[in-house]
Amino acid sequence: MKILSLLAIIFFIFSGIALYLSPALRVKLLQMLPGEVKQQIDTLTSMPQTTKPLYQWKDKNGQWIVSDTKPPKSIPYKIKQYSRETNVVPANGNGKNK
């Protein structure tokens, strides 16, 4: 039983590698799937590749502010967008570097 489980795991690993490395094989596999499954995969893969816009500006004390809402009209700002695959880590909260 252990050998059968090990063979199944190896099969799935190599199948995953083959699908990753061969776009033509992926296309053929997707064509074989039922319509509902194709729609779900299309929905997942058609997600935007970037985050929604973030606005960056300095407040009256010179501190940088980053927000998903625009600053007041009188304040100049930059628009930032990140790849969805980017890991953006929040600051430590006190605004000072250690």
Overview in brief:
This protein is α+β, with helices and mostly antiparallel strands. The protein is 42% helix and 12% strand.
Task: Describe what this molecule looks like in 3D.
The protein is α+β, with helices and mostly antiparallel strands. The protein folds into two domains: 44 residues, no CATH class; 37 residues, no CATH class. The chain is 42% helix and 12% strand. It is built from three helices and three strands; from the N terminus they run αααβββ. Strand 1 and strand 2 form a beta hairpin.
Tag the structure with descriptive keywords.
alpha+beta, 3 helices, 2 domains
Please give the radius of gyration in angstroms: 23 Å
Structural class computed from helices and strand pairing: alpha+beta
Question: Based on DSSP secondary structure assignment, what is the total number of beta strands?
Answer: 3
Which quaternary structure do these chains form? Answer: single chain
Q: Which regions have little confidence, pLDDT < 50, spanning 5+ residues?
A: none
Q: Biggest sheet: strands side by side, in what order? A: 2-1-3
Please write the string of helix (H) and strand (E) elements: HHHEEE
> Which term fits the overall shape?
elongated
Largest sheet: 3 strands, antiparallel
Question: What is the helix content?
Answer: 40-55%
- Overall mean pLDDT: 80
Instruction: Supply the number of structural domains.
Output: 2
Number of DSSP helices? Answer: 3
Strand residue content = 5-15%
Q: What is the straight-line distance between the termini?
A: 55 Å
